[in-house]
Design a protein that fits this description.
The complex is a heterodimer of chains A (261) and B (200). Chain A has eleven helices and two strands, in the order H-H-H-H-H-H-E-E-H-H-H-H-H. By secondary structure, chain A is mainly alpha-helical. A two-stranded antiparallel ribbon of chain A has the order 1-2. The longest helix of chain A is centred in the first third of the chain and has 27 residues, at 49-75. Chain B is α+β, with helices and mostly antiparallel strands. A five-stranded antiparallel β-sheet of chain B has the order 1-2-3-4-5. Classes of the chains: A mainly alpha (261), B alpha+beta (200).
Amino acid sequence: MKIKKYILILIPIIFFSLPLWSLESDKINTNPEDFETSYNEDEIYDPLESMNRTILNFNNIADKIILEPVAKGYRKLPSPIQTSLGNFLNNLKMPLVVVNQLLQGQGGNAVETTGRFIINSTAGLLGLIDVAEKVGLEQKQEDFGQTLATWGVGDGFYIVLPIFGPSNLRDASGMILTSITDPINAYAVTEGEGWIVPVKTATNAVNDRSKIIDEVNALRDNSIDYYAAVRSSYYQNRNAAILNDNDSTSMPLPLISIEFE
Amino acid sequence: MKLIFKIIFFIFFTTSQLYADDASNWLKTEVDFILEAYRNSDISNEKRFSIIENTVNYNFAGTGIAKFVSGEAWKKADKETKEKYVKFFKKHLALNIASLMQGYANQEYSLINSKYDSKNKVSLIDMNIFTNSSSITITWRVKQSKERFYIIDLLVADISLVVTKRSEFNSMLKKVNNDLETLSELLHKQNEESYKLLTN
């Protein structure tokens, strides 16, 4: 009962504070003469940079000591186990994906994702096998951060969360909303099986990390400013997710001159 | 009139696709060459990097990318500083590519899609790298100049290497008052560290 009360108080606070913080990020200006082209990442609002850098250093150590070794071990598991576990975790996310697709007015996608969830939860043995993919129902991801962005809520300031990594005010609020509205989490808590929530979160983290071991290492080992590289990568990745754009021709093109090669 | 439009569209589409296919075939040869260097266990790590560095330097628009990522600092720098910076940047770029490709050495890949962006005169080639249970898409941006191709950027899961480098360099340049000379020194130090990690 108490949790419900907190949630009811928290949701309006998050929603009303977001536009105020977003206004701050809109004040950032770049001088057009500074760059030959302008990108979002040149304009990232990062008032907490020094604190964020400290948290990133901590996360980096935690990643090297715990997450990366576990993810490497996970990648050594037989391929069918990794695939099944990945499918299972993805399937658990589908109810909230449907909610976010509806909130973003993507009726067609919501129907498709519902179909995916039903098929994979039944014929796909509780989501372990991605049967829906085989019948042409493509997997799509949407979250509350993307929904808020679609509704016109700005990024707010950039923030590095302990353990969870790079985010911004809007996406972090989206993450909180995801956590408190997730039907699996709610069911686990009401059934007195609250341990499921951290286990599910940790397994998701390991599964996601195992997919980008090489990329993260390449970035970490070769950056003169790893913090700025992570920040830029985060924003590029999120912007592509918000735009739902799979067409690489529409991504911003750097103005590279090759006349003097 | 309709027929003329159809013919123009057909010629335009066919030419664009030919450009993209040419670039795609060329890219496959170069990627195979780099991956082969990793698969060849008879050569030392130093020799391996040397092969990759030469390939990257020859095929990437290194100077153009170096200029782009340095932003306004480029304008203020003298010729000598620019040359020194470009030299270090090209090594830095090679180390980034080598480090990334090292992880892909034992994985299967396939070029899945190629298209020509006629507005920007750039070919975009999508490559899928397969791991045990998933795949990741890399998009290569390739431009043609003087009868040959140059890679101007690559996107890993929608993240552009060049845009990320620009952001990273802008951040460093802010700390050193946009002095390209100081940035070059920092870049040189980072290159030495990255080289050690890659070759050990």
